Amino acid sequence: MPTSPESITAQLTDLSAQLTAQGRRVQSLCEAAFDTVFTCEPAACKAVIARDEEIDAVDVAIEKAAVDLLTVACTANAAMPPQQLRAVLTIVKVNNELERIADVGTGIAETAQNLPPGVSFPPTFRVLTNSVVGILRDCVTALQTGNAALAKVVLMSEAAVGEFKKTLVREVQQQLAAGHIAIGQAAGMHDLAVACVVMADHCTNIAEQVLYAQTGTIVRHMEGRWEEVKV
Fold first, then answer.
1. Which residues of 76-115 are buried (b: 16+ CB within 10 A; e: fewer)?
2. Tally of CB atoms within 10 A around 13
3. Residue 24, Cα to own-chain centre: how many angstroms?
4. Could you give the CA distance from residue 163 to residue 159 in angstroms, rounded to a whole number?
5. Which H or E run contains 226?
6. Which of the residues 14, 36, 143, 219 has an alpha carbon 20 to 30 A from that of 179?
């Protein structure tokens, strides 16, 4: 593997493109997973679950390529400026976050398999899923374009997902108490709401890495606010 500055730049550009493609792949899987919740079609659920295998394979390939790049650069004593080192670290960390998001999406499709046909969801659930899809879309776009401002928007959006989840859980509890839904349905809706929050949390982790790669700033969540620490 060549280690000239131009070669390293080209390899990082290629890795970044692979990571963006993986992000869109994960986004598509999650959108399809949410659709299965509303349709409860077994074939669609199985199709979503099967797509996770490709994402796992790409995850391994990207990590291997990043490690190989660093290994060869170190062996050849090739100088890499801080921005390039941050870029490699970001690729490895974001790659892992994307794989975990895909796992959550797969879990959503698995949960949908066990929902009874014709199950009715409170309107808040559609709002919740749309919000998470929007956050994931913005997250991948920020990663692709290196848009630090959009990454900050993703960070600020996490709180809204948490509030939607609280509202949904409250509505489900009310429906359960009124006898409108069975306890199994209520448990399934609760699990799906938790999955949405977990997915949004992974997105904020990616947004933090975008800020780190672009500005060298480490972002930490401190008592309801985001605090930036310049490294």
1. eebebeeebebbbebbbbbbbbbbbbbbbbbbbbbbbeeb
2. 11
3. 10
4. 6
5. strand 225-230
6. 36
Are 112 and 45 within 8 A, CB to CB? yes
Which residues lie below 8 Å from residue 23, measured CB to CB, with a gap of 6+?
A: 94, 98, 139, 140, 143, 144
Instruction: Tell me the average pLDDT of the chain.
Output: 88
Place of tokens 């620490």: 229
- Alpha carbons 133 and 137: distance in angstroms, whole number: 6
- DSSP symbols for 20-89: HHHHHHHHHHHHHHHHHHHH--HHHHHHHHHHHHHHHHHHHHHHHHHHHHHHHHHHTT----HHHHHHHH
**Distance in angstroms (rounded) separating the CA atoms of residues 27 and 203:** 11
d(CA 65, CA 72): 11
> What span, in angstroms and rounded, lies between the C-alpha atoms of 224 and 204?
14
Whole-number Å distance between alpha carbons of 219 and 116: 42
Tens of pLDDT, residue by residue over 191-227, are 999 999 999 999 999 999 998 888 878 776 645 555 6
Q: What whole-number distance in Å separates Cα of residue 15 and Cα of residue 89?
A: 12
Domains of the chain: 5-230 (1.20.58.220)
